[in-house]
Amino acid sequence: MNKRSLIKKIVGxxxxxxEVYFRAARASRTEATHEQSNAENKYDTRGLExxxxxxxxxxxxxxxxxxxxxxxxxxxxxFGAGEPVDVGAFVELESNGxxxxxxxxxxAGGTEVLHDxxxxxxxxxxxxxxxxxxxxKQGDILKLKLAQGQNQCLVTMVV
Length: 159
Prior knowledge:
Blueprint: H1 3-33, H2 46-73, E1 90-95, E2 98-104, E3 112-115, E4 118-123, H3 128-133, E5 141-146, E6 149-158
Parallel strand pairs: 2-4
Antiparallel strand pairs: 1-2, 1-6, 3-4, 5-6
Helix pairs in contact: 1-2
């Protein structure tokens, strides 16, 4: 498992998302300040709505920038046999014969990347799933509380 490569892919995906937010924020800002967005009466809120949208997109872009910085600072480390799950761990869970791969990241939960021909989902320790697997070890059996109910999983890998 080349974690440096995985982290690079996560940063690449976040950089792509950042560009999308920057373009959207610029477009919304342009619309908010365009002369045709001036209110024609007290019920015309087009310009105000575009301004709120631009502000929200700028905040999301700032969040992604912070996530990129956090991943760039993250030192990849190998977790030894019997070591508990922590930030920077690659974790594989198996449930009903199906395996799922996760990377415990400092931020950007929900980001998905393709690594070594498999989908890897970034989760954070603060997420519901992250809270339940933090501190667990390879071979542990978990009873995960998910939206669909309870599910039993085996921690098959922590590296």
